[in-house]
Amino acid sequence: MWLIWVPVCFLLFFSILANCFPTDCVHPFPRSYVVYHLNELQEAIHVDGKLNDEAWNSVAWTEDFIDIQGPDWKKPRFRTHAKMLWDDAYLYIGAFLQETDVWANQTKHDSVVYQDNDFEVFVDPDGDTHWYPYINGGTPNSSWEMPTLKSAIFVSGPVNNASLPDKFWTVELALPFSDLVDHSPTASAPPNNKDQWRINFSRVEWHVRNVNGHYEKVPNVPEDNWVWSSQGAINMHLPERWGFIQFSTDAVNTTQFVRTRNWPAYSALVMLYEAEKKFIAVNGYYTANLTQLEIPASLKTGQCQYEPAVQVVKLYNFEATVKPLNQRIPVGHIRDDRFIWFTERDKHNEIEV
Ligand SMILES: *[C@@H]1O[C@H](CO)[C@@H](O)[C@H](O)[C@H]1NC(C)=O
Ligand SMILES: *[C@@H]1O[C@H](CO)[C@@H](O)[C@H](O)[C@H]1NC(C)=O
Ligand SMILES: *[C@@H]1O[C@H](CO)[C@@H](O)[C@H](O)[C@H]1NC(C)=O
Ligand SMILES: *[C@@H]1O[C@H](CO)[C@@H](O)[C@H](O)[C@H]1NC(C)=O
Ligand SMILES: *[C@@H]1O[C@H](CO)[C@@H](O)[C@H](O)[C@H]1NC(C)=O
Ligand SMILES: *[C@@H]1O[C@H](CO)[C@@H](O)[C@H](O)[C@H]1NC(C)=O
């Protein structure tokens, strides 16, 4: 073992592939899903809320949703999972939400949907975390906010009748690519084979009780938040922790998801960003001194697979840079407005390893 392990670790160290660095250098990789293109032979998706189109049967479910605070939290009371497909016009999403009591109080458009149970979708086509369509709504009786989207809901039992239990409701969505990429300069509509986008789903579920045949929220009990890829905090607006989808034109189930080599640098950029935001909240300015930031010690002491640095401009602006030790991996950057981008390195400096 020893004789094998040493050279392997040595090799890994020099090719910087992974694993010989402290684990806190990198965030756990989010969940991922390969989205297959609708086959020309299959019937189209009819957005009627029922996930009974032949194409849905051919693709896998995502993993079950977990608590937004992470996998170590209580397992959700009800199962939630989703499927995705695409064609040249739409990203299709089919979600299954197990439920015993379907109720809805919000009936007006633009009502505050998270006061009812709901299903939300977040999409960041170019992964820069900077702008994303926030598709809200989806209780059995409220509409969704993106005007061009097609959506429908099917409920397996009666709505708002506490004397008859339901089993589930399903949500079927068709999100037009042309609108999804509207604020994403580098994303293409429709996507290309192998393109990766960031996405996350959230289900808000209140505890209700039956009072004389109608539903009331159980007082003083907070809502549950269940997500596909856990956020580690009750806040869905952290796109850097969302899941990855990879678009594929290959036959269903014949493609593997490919993890981006940028992930370690991406993680470090987010750690630096969050630490700078904490620092300025307390001190009133940003710092370029990493020892003052709440980041893992391995980042401060240069034990990670990248070199982190922060440049502060006039105390109130910063740009953090993370240079992977492997010269073939692009350099990551993040600004104080959370914009993330990567730059390829000068080919002349490339070091073959
Ligand atoms: C693809 O995999 C899923 C999950 O294992 C399975 O349900 C589905 O039938 C498979 N589809 C095809 C076309 O093999
Ligand atoms: C939705 O709201 C409308 C208007 O309040 C109501 O007439 C209808 O019955 C509701 N539908 C469901 C499924 O609750
Ligand atoms: C609920 O369903 C039961 C059985 O169908 C029916 O008798 C009752 O009137 C319904 N209640 C409401 C509030 O619609
Ligand atoms: C729905 O609204 C009614 C009337 O305001 C209220 O009595 C009931 O508690 C609400 N139900 C839920 C589950 O919030
Ligand atoms: C969804 O967002 C949460 C929080 O940002 C994150 O932890 C989780 O990994 C995301 N889901 C996926 C599939 O990334
Ligand atoms: C960075 O911050 C630490 C802790 O506050 C301090 O001891 C150190 O002198 C600072 N380094 C520089 C170069 O300012």
List keywords for this structure.
4-stranded antiparallel sheet; 353 residues; 14% helix; 17 strands; disordered C terminus; single chain; disordered N terminus; 11-stranded mixed sheet; binds 2-acetamido-2-deoxy-beta-D-glucopyranose
| Rg, nearest Å | 23 Å
Distance between the termini: 25 Å
Judging from the principal axes of the Cα atoms, what is the shape? globular
Number of strands: 17
- Mean pLDDT comes to 80
Q: Low-confidence parts, pLDDT < 50 over ≥5 residues?
A: 1-13, 129-144, 233-237, 349-353
How much of the sequence is in beta strands? 25-35%
- Backbone structural class: alpha+beta
Q: Count of helical segments?
A: 5
Q: Summarize the biggest pleated sheet.
A: 11 strands, mixed
Order of helices and strands: HEHEEEEEEEHEEEEEHHEEEE
How helical, in percent, are the residues? Answer: 10-25%
Present as ligands are: 2-acetamido-2-deoxy-beta-D-glucopyranose
Domain Carbohydrate-binding: 47-129
Protein name: Carbohydrate-binding domain-containing protein
Signal peptide: 1-20
Organism: Acropora cervicornis (Staghorn coral)
